[in-house]
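Notes from hallway chat w/ T.B., transcribed later so I don't forget. T.B. wanted the structure written out for a chain they're using in a teaching module, and asked if we could keep both sequence and structure tokens in one place. Agreed to drop them here.
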Amino acid sequence: MFVVCVTFKINPGQMEAFLPLMHAQAQNSMAREPGCLRFDVCGGGDEPDEVFLCEIYTDKAAFETHLGLPHFIEFNAATEKYVATKTVRTYGWMKGGSEKG
């Protein structure tokens, strides 16, 4: 598995415009991408203008495919004006954790 963690800092006053687009992106990824196993949108923590994503893909290739799909490209272009910063971190799955089997 391949894990992607993304932290968005949203420009002040732009969260209401950003969130519906973010939730649609999560739904599109889960519905249209067999390699996307999970796409969580998190917020409401210590930083009110921050959105955190935890995405899990079958492998790195599935994530790279995700980056080239029309719904991702459209989302990226539509939300660019709302995002102050975006940090992406990726991780590989380490055997011996909490997985079953």
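Follow-up for T.B.: The domain at 2-92 is CATH 3.30.70.100 (Alpha-Beta Plaits). Might be a good example for the class.
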